[in-house]
Automatic annotation (TrEMBL):
Binding site for Zn(2+): 82, 156, 401
Classification of source organism: Bacteria, Pseudomonadati, Pseudomonadota, Gammaproteobacteria, Pseudomonadales
GO-annotated molecular function: aminopeptidase activity; metallopeptidase activity; zinc ion binding
Cofactor(s) needed by this chain: Zn(2+)
Protein name: Probable M18 family aminopeptidase 2
InterPro entries: M18_aminopeptidase_2, Peptidase_M18, Peptidase_M18_dom2
Length: 429
């Protein structure tokens, strides 16, 4: 079971270099399990016992199934995660030709750790919008091959490098794509048109626009002397998306269950498809009920906001509160913040603890040091928009927001087990 889940996660990460690809991969796996796609532009006819999913912006997805028990009686079991990760995004007019090298202008998306992006074999993926035969179309592309690199400056030319230096995103992050001769301007859009032709056999009249991200081509892997860890890109937060998907597919038919995987969490969630937008509320209104009935359902429901937690790093133990240092491979972490950066309450935390105890899943707690700031999640945002009771949890990881993060290889099984039990739970209080 553990090895199968781990390999499934590795495959999922490889297939999902961008939020667009993650959403497409989730949709493919849901359809293979009998979930029907819904179009927001068309009327919906959701039947009791039905299984459905809907996407928005090609980068956010909500999947749900109507249980045999009425949600007016039993509420909804919701699991929330996000599809985006910090990365380098290509600028609209990215061509840079400097000293015989072709480079791309990039913009930092989210709170990325920048130093690990140097000296990596990078590829490019995302969504391209183009005109073909007079119609505007969009398509996902993934170069897959390592086509770019951001070389470090040699220590001989930067003697202070190991004492730390401020990375200038404008000057130091443009990746090198090729060495070129002459000064003839390079057309990046021609490269995208060629990729569309090779990958999808499409001939675009003109490339209109694109949303493209660089990513590390090194695949995720099980690492460590005893295989204790999973190392890979975008564990924050595709790990939770994958765990939520596995739990939803394993859930029985009694309770009404929802999986929410939204984009733009790393930049505040304020978008039409982000957690601070209307996507979830509009979907629930169309799928289950509106007005007073939706309020009644919501107050019988619970959201588990699943987003990675900071594990206790052996080289930096002083970065944690002495009583709240989550360990890798020791189970999910309940995240608490009295200033509501996490939406956990004593009641929602109590229920999650009960769920873990009932299913023999180890659990831990995290509170940030009182002299340090605290990040946030989709939990408080969704709770404030929808009014749903929420608990923030996550698996402990190292190197969060790096190009390559690290999680415990045993924890994925713990998370899938408790989320499956949550989807099947008869009572939420």
């Amino acid at each position: 079971m553990r090895a199968e889940l781990t390999q499934g996660l590795i495959d999922f990460l490889k297939a999902s270099p961008t939020p667009f690809h993650a959403t497409a991969t989730l949709a493919q796996r849901l359809e293979a399990a009998g979930y029907q796609p819904l179009d927001e532009r068309q009327p919906w006819q959701c039947e009791p016992g039905g299984r459905y999913y809907v996407t928005r912006n090609d980068s956010s997805l909500i999947a749900f199934k109507a249980g045999t028990r009425s949600p007016l009686e039993g509420g909804l079991r919701l699991v929330g995660a996000h599809t985006d990760s910090p990365c380098l995004r290509v600028k609209p007019q990215p061509e840079m030709q400097r000293h015989g090298f072709l480079q791309l202008g990039v913009e930092v998306y989210g709170g990325a750790l920048l130093a690990p992006w140097f000296d990596r074999d990078l590829s490019l993926a995302g969504r391209v919008t183009f005109r073909r035969d007079g119609r505007v179309e969009s398509q996902l592309i993934d170069f897959q091959a390592p086509i770019a690199v951001i070389p470090n400056l040699a220590i001989h030319l930067n003697r202070e490098a190991n004492q730390g230096w401020a990375i200038n995103a404008q000057n130091e992050l443009p990746p090198i794509l090729a060495q070129i001769a002459g000064a003839e301007p390079y057309d990046f859009r021609a490269l995208l048109a060629d990729q569309l032709s090779r990958e999808h056999e499409l001939t675009a009249d003109i490339i209109l626009d694109f949303e493209l991200s660089l990513y590390d081509t090194q695949p995720a892997a099980v690492v460590g002397l005893h295989g204790d860890f999973i190392a890979g890109a975008r564990l924050d937060n595709l790990l939770s998306c994958y765990a939520g998907l596995q739990a939803l597919l394993a859930a029985d038919d009694e309770q009404s269950c929802v999986l929410v995987c939204t984009d733009h969490e790393e930049v505040g969630s304020t978008s039409c498809c982000g957690a601070d937008g209307p996507f979830l509320e509009q979907t629930l209104e169309r799928a289950f009920a509106a007005g007073e009935d939706l309020v009644r359902i919501t107050q019988r429901s619970l959201l588990i906001s699943a987003d990675n937690a900071h594990g206790l790093h052996p080289n930096y133990p002083d970065k944690h509160d002495g009583n709240h240092g989550p360990k890798l491979n020791a189970g999910p972490v309940i995240k608490v913040n009295s200033n509501q950066r996490y939406a956990t309450s004593s009641e929602t935390a109590g229920f999650f603890r009960h769920l873990c105890l009932e299913n023999e899943v180890p659990m831990q707690s995290f509170v940030t040091r009182s002299d340090m700031g605290c990040g946030s999640t989709i939990g408080p945002i969704t709770a404030s928009r929808l009014g749903v009771p929420t608990v923030d949890i996550g698996l402990p990881t190292f190197a969060m927001h790096s190009i390559r993060e690290l999680a415990g290889s045993q924890d994925l099984e713990h998370l899938v087990k408790v989320l499956t039990a949550f989807y099947n739970s008869a009572e939420l209080a």
